[in-house]
Amino acid sequence: MAAGLATWLPFARAAAVGWLPLAQQPLPPAPGVKASRGDEVLVVNVSGRRFETWKNTLDRYPDTLLGSSEKEFFYDADSGEYFFDRDPDMFRHVLNFYRTGRLHCPRQECIQAFDEELAFYGLVPELVGDCCLEEYRDRKKENAERLAEDEEAEQAGDGPALPAGSSLRQRLWRAFENPHTSTSALVFYYVTGFFIAVSVIANVVETIPCRGSARRSSREQPCGERFPQAFFCMDTACVLIFTGEYLLRLFAAPSRCRFLRSVMSLIDVVAILPYYIGLLVPKNDDVSGAFVTLRVFRVFRIFKFSRHSQGLRILGYTLKSCASELGFLLFSLTMAIIIFATVMFYAEKGTNKTNFTSIPAAFWYTIVTMTTLGYGDMVPSTIAGKIFGSICSLSGVLVIALPVPVIVSNFSRIYHQNQRADKRRAQQKVRLARIRLAKSGTTNAFLQYKQNGGLEDSGSGEEQALCVRNRSAFEQQHHHLLHCLEKTTCHEFTDELTFSEALGAVSPGGRTSRSTSVSSQPVGPGSLLSSCCPRRAKRRAIRLANSTASVSRGSMQELDMLAGLRRSHAPQSRSSLNAKPHDSLDLNCDSRDFVAAIISIPTPPANTPDESQPSSPGGGGRAGSTLRNSSLGTPCLFPETVKISSL
Amino acid sequence: MNRCPRRCRSPLGQAARSLYQLVTGSLSPDSVEDEFELSTVCHRPEGLEQLQEQTKFTRKELQVLYRGFKNECPSGIVNEENFKQIYSQFFPQGDSSTYATFLFNAFDTNHDGSVSFEDFVAGLSVILRGTVDDRLNWAFNLYDLNKDGCITKEEMLDIMKSIYDMMGKYTYPALREEAPREHVESFFQKMDRNKDGVVTIEEFMESCQKDENIMRSMQLFDNVI
Predict the structure, then answer these.
(1) Domains in chain B with CATH codes
(2) Which residues 123-162 in chain B show a CB within 8 A of chain A?
(3) Domains and CATH numbers, chain A
(4) Is the ipTM of this complex over 0.85?
(5) Is the pLDDT of residue A289 over 80?
(6) Chain A residues lying within 8 Å of B163, measured CB to CB
(7) Which interval of the chain is the signal sequence (chain B) (predicted)?
């Protein structure tokens, strides 16, 4: 350990006196490093708590923050101490590392916080001492697992909106994997579940003896033979549905090879194959025995339920993960069975008419006894047999009881993990929504700031001041930054809804009954993206128009923005803003009215047609875009009666 | 369960005891007690003033030395194993355990098997703050393994081998088997005046004082502490 080395170095150098007289060559001169003694006490102030230590202590580990000159960055000359704005409780452990050479892990702190502190002070996590190393590793692994689950949940989780360009295949796959995303998928899910149940019940009922009519009362027939056509029809229907489902899944799967190899698809195949084999194989007496065997496989249809039940899946997963314990159980049981069967056989050999005819015959007795079933069909009669039989049953209890708790604890762990995953998914949704809200809040703050004319270099100073005074220094600088970016790229920021609408992704029969459709082509993506500055005004106006449409969807954010729009009077409208920097554009003041028309959404509809008329020739008709007005006399608060003429 | 310690020593008694424990299912309490070791003895050095008188270190130097020493050995003493381990950290390539043993014996002036802080500091004081004669004396003491006042060839050979062991395997030029022996021969040739096969303290001192190299190398120790 470095601490030891530093302390003992003078001693080791002094011990070199033993080599002096033996040296055949002159020894090199000592380095001029004045081992700067004058050991001083350093004061380290961590969030107000003062730690004092010798300078030598910190110098022991020169590749850490405190041991190197990096700590000079934190030196406060006024108070003569090193100030760190970190957690003082954690710092205690860090400092103890310097003192004792061992890094201990605090039990009650979050392991990630501890890691962050270590990273800050330049300590490698491998320095954690042996006493705490195991616990540290376990906690870290647990944390990492949990985070990995989070990421998986994020990726696997259903995003609320598929990318617009998803193909039928992707949509189909998504419907299969997450049935609750759309109604049709849910319906399909329940239908298949119902048919699985029907199929299984039919299989079961087939074998129940039906009371035949008096004529055939010689023996009772199972229902399957009494109503063969009915059962055959039901079976056919189920198999058809299962086949259809399987083929659809195969078609929709992103990776067909992987899908073919997955467990669920194997179960599907096994469920439907016997039917087809039965169809193909002719009704031959030789083969019918095999045919009958195949019908057994129909019972595997019940495993298809595992798609519908999470508990089943957990159980299957548990068994898979406990494979070693199960294997051990099986192995030890086999050993015990063989031993006891042998013993019992030889103990009972002498008896007449004994059941223990051979050692394999005695296996049955041993198994039944060890699992404490005790059917009583094979019973020892000699005294030795009885003694060994009782030992056998006692040991059976022990052998079985040992691996079971391991399996149980595994199941419990996986089950809780699953529950935790569900909880976390819900939390994720909330968190994502919050993040999205925060982001859009920032964007809208910027957009609103622009509406309010904050970008005006010179303007009606008073009004401007009123609008913008509530911004902090941070916001001001942030908005300035965004503005610079806009200027650099000749594009402007807008919000998500208006952008997606402008792309023509508005679905007419969609969620809301109100819609403004963007009819003609030039307003499509082409004009939006290909045009640069000269067309900005038009684009922006269209975006504004779209944003008004989105108001009708009840989005409060847009309403705020437009309310802001409305507050600012026409002279400060957006088009006029751009009229200033782009004087080369011959935008006429009609566009101002144009905007005013849009602004008047919350006002009674009567106003809008009047204002919008004069603005028809505006813009020189560069692109004929007509936004149809769909005025709906809805009882809603925001009647949408915007008639926006072409530019 | 501590009924009759004497009687329970006998094997029959032990068998009976274990059978009793098997039947009643009680854990044997004795094993727990046996595990408690005696806590290590803590050694405290004499006062700072006395050490100041005995050695040539200043007060501050003694403080620094003691702080380091106490940090490494909270019990106050170093035994041979620790000593070897500490010293081996400085020579990772070779095997320094033999030389460390010799050093340990040199530092352990009262031969009680442990080096206390006083021994440690006394040795350091001689080496680092003593006169040239003191140092040579100390070196002679180191070489004289059986402390009989003279160095024989065998003793010297042991010392030489231990020093060469510290070099390890990978040296340039490669270490030959007879290198220590040759070195010893040359040493004796230089030091043994009357050619009687041993080097006494007077011969040693005399020869060393005449040797330029040795005298010049003595300034090695000027600013170790």
Answers:
(1) 47-130 (1.10.238.10), 132-224 (1.10.238.10)
(2) 123-124, 127-128, 135-136, 138-139, 142-143, 159-160
(3) 41-155 (3.30.710.10), 178-211+220-308 (1.20.120.350), 314-431 (1.10.287.70)
(4) no
(5) no
(6) 18-19, 22
(7) none
